[in-house]
Structures are given as structure tokens and as C-alpha cells.
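Data deposition worksheet. Section B asks for the primary sequence of the deposited chain exactly as it was used as input, without tags or linkers unless they were present during the calculation. Section C holds the resulting structure in C-alpha cell form. Section D is free text for depositor observations; keep each observation to a single sentence. Incomplete worksheets are returned to the depositor.
Section A, Depositor: J.P.
Section B:
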Amino acid sequence: MLQITRKAVARRSGKDIMLFRLTDKSGAFVELLNYGATLVSAFVPDRKGRFANVILNYPNIEDYLSDTCYLGSTIGRFANRIGNAQFTLDGKTFHLDRNDGENCNHSGYSGFHQKIFDAEVQGDELALTAYSPDGEGGFPGNMKVTVCFSFRNHLLTIRYRASADCETLFNPACHAYFNLSGQKGSAFQHELHVNASEYLEADNHFLPTGKILPVSGTAFDFTQYRIIEQMAALKHDALTGYNAYYPVPGNDTVRRLASLKEAGSGRTMTVCSSMPGVLFYSGDYLCGEHQPFEGLCLEAQFFPDTPNHAHFPSCNILPGKQIEHVTCFQFEIL
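Section C:
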């Protein structure tokens, strides 16, 4: 039986910011805030049965309120970048916040990561609900979103549900940074496997060119477990690490996207999702409390800049229709 506890840790805009703990029968637990539907920790065992946190976090709630790295946040309405901060839908062009040069990243200045969600325990799930009004960040439609978290047998499941009153975009993601060692230090020695034979070519602004390229023979080939640092040394672009998107075939089924393992602790993590692919970000721009490469993101999501590429899978939702996406993180021992 999952145990869910809560405590108030701050108050902002007349609402309580709550810290929730979800503990499974083994004693492993995850913690999260209703501010940004943010994952704060995941305490899971290593091969010797020792529990440690494998998610980067901040020591103080104030750090989350001023965070610029989206540490553990739920991203939406649209995760990743939209080129030139605009897109066209049904013949109308929508102009978004330009918070990444000329582009919009992670929904601009008013994304889900800054909302205080209403919380409700529903059986063995914690349901966090928020509203995004028409025009927020430039996106059309009034949207209701619910992010449900459950944790059983070291399996963290996140369900994203959304509905809107007109056609709009919905591309949520979990922006947790993982370091399976459970210790402070670089995660560049982790081994990564991505269940994809192709990746999206991107420009220097991390926007897709539209080309989908084979990984074979490139530094982006993680079709078998490879040490990230060794592969990154083969890259020829300006980024030391990775900010790469991998399409994973599967037709909206919940399937394995990627797996991560850390030899020292023996911990492994497998990411499964109904989303069409995964963004691997190696934490190059971490700052403040955390240094670059201390944690790695494996963000199940739709393709970056989806609405501006007709051949990318659509993330549109239709009025009056609720849509659901599922992402799971399974923690195990080698």
C-alpha cells in the first residue's frame, strides 16, 4: 500500500506550497512539490541495500521559486523549443514568449513549472491540477491539466491529462535530473541505452532542421549501453554534452524509450512512455547549486518545434476531448 504524506513548506499568492512524500512498501520514496508539480527526490536502494536520492534538488524552497534550470519541474504546455516563438494553427499565427533568444523554450514565462497546483489524493495516486487561461504565454485555449503521480515497487508513474476549449498544443515533460550514484559529482560516467536508431538533426539553437538522421557511426549512437563521456568525446559540435532528441517507434503505446545505469551503485533506471520519443540532455547548463553534468535528463516528450514541421507527429488536442500521456521511471539493481 502506498503511503502519501504532506506538509506545508511555504505560501505564495495566497496558496500553500506543499511537500508530498509517496512511500512504497519497501521504504523507498519520492518527494514532490505542488509548485510546478516538481519532483524533489527519489530515494531508492543500491546493490547493498543503501538508500540514496538519485534526483538533483535544492536545499531550500526559495531556490525552487527562483530556479532557471527547471529542476524536477513538470514542463508545459509545450516542452522544449518552438522556433521564432510562433506557430500557425488553423490558419492563425500565435506569437509566444521569446525567452530563449528569438525562440520560446519550455512555454515561456508562464509555464506549468511556475504554477501552484491543487492537490488531491485519489487512492494510490497524488493528483495535481492546474489551469492555464487562453493566451497564457501566447498559447490558445483555456486548458485544464492534471498530473498524477504514483510510486509502487520502485516504479514512478506520471500520468498527464489535459483538456481545452479549443484546438491547442499539449506536450508535457518531466524535467528531473538524475544521478544514479546518489552522490554529488558528475554523471558523465553513467551508461546510456536509447531504444532508437535515429535522432533529430539540430542547429546551434537546438532547433530541429527537420532532418531525421541514422545514429549509426555517430556520437549519438546509444543503441547499446555506452559510457556517455566516451561518446561525447566523438562529437564535433559546440556543446560538450548532449541536447538530442530520439524518436522511438511505437504508435502511442507505453514502451521502453531509454535506460541508464551506474556501475558503482548498481542502480539502473528505465524510462517508458506513450510519448513519441525522448530528449537526452546532459545538464550542460546547470548552474548555482549544481554544476554542469551533475545530473542527466531523459525527457519523454513530442518532437521539439513540432507545430512548425508538418512531418512530425502532432501534439494537438481537440476541444472537449481529454488526452492522456504516460511516462514511467523504473528503478532497479544490476
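Section D:
The CA atoms of residues 131 and 144 lie 5 Å apart.
The longest strand covers residues 323-333.
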